[in-house]
Amino acid sequence: MPLYKTINYNSSTQILVWEITETFEDLFDQVVLNDINMIRLNTMKSELHQRGFLSVRKLLQQAGYNDFDLYYDESGKPHLKDGKFISITHSFHFSAIIISDQKAGIDIEMQREKIIRIADKFVDYEFHFLKPEKIQEYIRKLTVIWGVKESIFKIRNEKGISFKDHIKVTTFEMNENQGRAWLHIDNVAKDFNIYFEEIENFTLVYAFEN
Ligand SMILES: CC(C)(COP(=O)(O)OP(=O)(O)OC[C@H]1O[C@@H](n2cnc3c(N)ncnc32)[C@H](O)[C@@H]1OP(=O)(O)O)[C@@H](O)C(=O)NCCC(=O)NCCS
Fold it and tell me: Of ligand 1's atoms, which has the minimum distance to the CA of residue 75?
């Protein structure tokens, strides 16, 4: 049962990370699912996705919840019935959740060279401080920026949001493990505190709306 990591950010915010080493059957036997999520599980095409989904239920258990405490709205955004904020992510053999009294979003991404090829789809302002010639650092920073933008999207869920045009991440260094970001869309302007860390060759990012 590899709970990989718990981050107690403050007294009302926990980040939990699971390393998925269990089989589908092991995970399935250890969690409860409501009817809707049982149907969803059965319609998932890949076993990796199913294991990610089930491992999130293991993380919920760790935090004192189960699947019946959770519901999804029509956009797919998860909510806890007790009014706390939750955000969920899974990627390959990791999954993570954040539960908080503050509006929070989380994302975990594998660091991959191919992110360079899609950089101009989600980066604009940040090109001012990125240094493409330092290729390893460039990949790591792009992965942080992507995770920040996904996390903010998960918080705001804004229609018509463009990662490139509407979300800006301010300059940061990898060893700082934190930074700031802004969302400007139509008449909405919000700022966010962001945190990131690397786990193996994955990047975990979480963001809080101020
Ligand atoms: C929905 C989205 C945020 C999911 O992110 P992802 O990296 O594909 O996958 P993750 O594993 O990190 O996150 C999946 C989880 O996000 C949550 N989620 C799904 N839709 C969501 C939404 N609208 N708002 C908040 N959270 C959402 C769910 O909990 C989901 O997991 P679950 O269904 O198993 O519980 C993403 O697919 C998306 O639509 N992003 C924005 C679109 C965009 O503009 N992208 C490209 C810009 S260049």
Answer: 23
C-alpha 60 – ligand 1 centre gap (Å): 18
**95 C-beta closer than 6 A to ligand 1:** no
Between the CA of 132 and the centroid of ligand 1 the distance, in Å, is: 27
For 102, 126, 168, 182, the CA distances from 194, given in Å and listed in that order, are 13, 15, 12, 10
Is pLDDT above 90 for 159?
no
Give the lowest-confidence range in 4-8, 73-77, 99-103, 157-161: 157-161
Beta bridge partners of 14: 8, 99
Residue 158's pLDDT band, with cuts at 50, 70 and 90, is: confident
The residue type of 159 is K
